[in-house]
Design goal:
single chain, mainly beta, two-stranded antiparallel sheet
Length: 52
């Protein structure tokens, strides 16, 4: 993952996984779910206008 301009977080509440994504850096994250289902991905930071 990578961010172009502002700090973001990759957040999956059901897995209790949160990873910061810093502009200018590539971040690898490996997640292995143990249950089949649909999961909501969120950005848990307010990074600017309309990001809430």
């Amino acid at each position: 993952m990578h961010a172009k301009e502002v700090l973001h977080t990759f957040y999956v509440p059901e897995f209790r996984v949160q990873q910061y994504i810093v502009p200018g850096r590539d971040v690898d994250l490996v997640v292995t779910p143990t249950r089949i289902g649909k999961y909501t991905l969120k950005d848990s930071l307010f990074s600017g206008t309309y990001f809430a």
